# Entry
Amino acid sequence: MLTHIKRTIGDRAFSILAGGFFSVFTLICFFPIYYLFINTISDNSLVQAGQVNLLPKGVHFGNYTALLNVPDLFNSALISVWRTVLGTLTMVLASAFVGYLVTQQKMFARKIVYRFIIITMYGIGRPRRYCFVWQRWKTVSGCFTRRSPFRLGRR
# Structure
C-alpha cells in the first residue's frame, strides 16, 4: 500500500522552478535542430537573405531529394555507423579488461599498471588546463595544438 507524503510549499516551489529550468534547457537544446530543419525545407534564397527565423517560408523538399542523389551517401552512413559500433565495443571491452586487471590482488606488476592508469588519467593524458600565450610565442593558435597527433594542417 502506498502512502502519500504531503508536499510543502517549498517542495511545490522547487518543482515549479526545476520544471521551468529544465523546460528552458530543453528548448535551448532543441532549437538548433529545429532551426536547421526549417532552413533545409525553406526556400534557399529566403534562407540566404536571412528571412527565415521561426517558421519555414517557401516550403520545398528539393534539398532532401538532392541529398538522396548523392552517390556515396549510403556507403558514408554505413562507415559512420560501423565506426561508432566498433569504437564503442572496443572501448567497453578495453575498460572492462583494465577494470578486471586492476581488481586482481595477485596480478603481475599490479602497482605499476595501476599507477600508470592513474597518472595518465589525471596527469599526462589530460589536456592542459591553462593555455598561456607568452609575448614571444604569438604564433600559438590554440591550446591543444602542440601535442595533438590528430591536428589538421601543417606539422
